[in-house]
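Example 9 (inverse folding). The structure is encoded as follows.
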């Protein structure tokens, strides 16, 4: 389901001086200006008596172009009370801030919430707001304010756990300290919900070893991204990316010394 899109300066990902060849890659994908407008895809999984959301979008407080999840709910005739579980990849604003409604209460009050232990520990640590880089201080404050609402109904987990039937946690750190991907196994088929461990469909695939300014630990993020793309392409496993086009559905195919994102309708 779409939560809209972000509007980000190109420098957010590449700094003021992009790596040699970055602009050429971006131009091949139609990105020629100073901004990027990545999609925001929320994954909805219906499985028997469970209706599961993976991340909840940005809500109305992050930026005007995002926070559109309720439009998707209305189109599907889905009610917030239908959601039994909310699973977080990580606690950045565009994935977490939609957990709170316009009155400051939990949007999905009847749901069980699930987050990796390391991610929870990082964003609920009072020291994070003073140690995170200056450009992300609002991320830390916003995360703390929202996660405190979940303290009584959060389920914490570590790597390689079946957190719900058929849903396995995969630690993919770097974008944030405790970022998680999720391997969903259904009827002999598997799909990997990658969150922001693969944050775009162009440079992240073609040059996965390049450092990205969108990752809180760029070197670890690059290691994670390369390992994940190797795994997905070797296994020919489908993936869903939060910021990938076409709803995020597709797979990773090897091309030269990198990869290419092949959308589901390609």
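The amino acid assigned to each position is listed next.
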């Amino acid at each position: 389901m779409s939560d809209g899109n972000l509007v980000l300066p190109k420098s957010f990902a590449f700094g003021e001086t992009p790596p040699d060849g970055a602009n050429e890659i971006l131009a091949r994908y139609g990105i020629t200006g100073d901004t990027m407008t990545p999609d925001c895809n929320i994954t909805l999984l219906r499985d028997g008596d469970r209706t599961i959301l993976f991340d909840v979008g940005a809500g109305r407080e992050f930026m005007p172009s995002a926070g559109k999840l309720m439009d998707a709910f209305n189109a599907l005739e889905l009610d917030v009370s239908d959601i039994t579980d909310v699973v977080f990849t990580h606690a950045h604003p565009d994935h977490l801030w939609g957990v709170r409604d316009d009155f400051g209460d939990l949007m999905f009050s009847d749901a069980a919430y699930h987050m990796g232990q390391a991610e929870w520990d990082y964003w609920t640590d009072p020291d994070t707001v003073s140690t995170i880089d200056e450009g992300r201080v609002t991320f830390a404050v916003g995360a703390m304010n929202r996660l405190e609402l979940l303290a009584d109904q959060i389920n914490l987990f570590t790597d390689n756990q079946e957190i719900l039937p058929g849903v396995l946690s995969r630690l993919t750190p770097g974008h944030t300290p405790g970022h998680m991907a999720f391997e969903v196994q259904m009827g002999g088929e598997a799909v990997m919900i990658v969150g922001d461990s693969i944050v775009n469909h162009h440079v992240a695939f073609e040059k996965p070893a390049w450092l990205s300014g969108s990752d809180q630990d760029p070197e670890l993020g690059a290691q994670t991204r390369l390992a994940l793309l190797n795994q997905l392409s070797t296994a020919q496993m489908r993936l869903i990316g939060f910021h990938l086009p076409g709803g995020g559905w597709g797979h990773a195919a090897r091309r030269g010394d990198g990869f290419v994102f092949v959308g589901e309708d390609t």
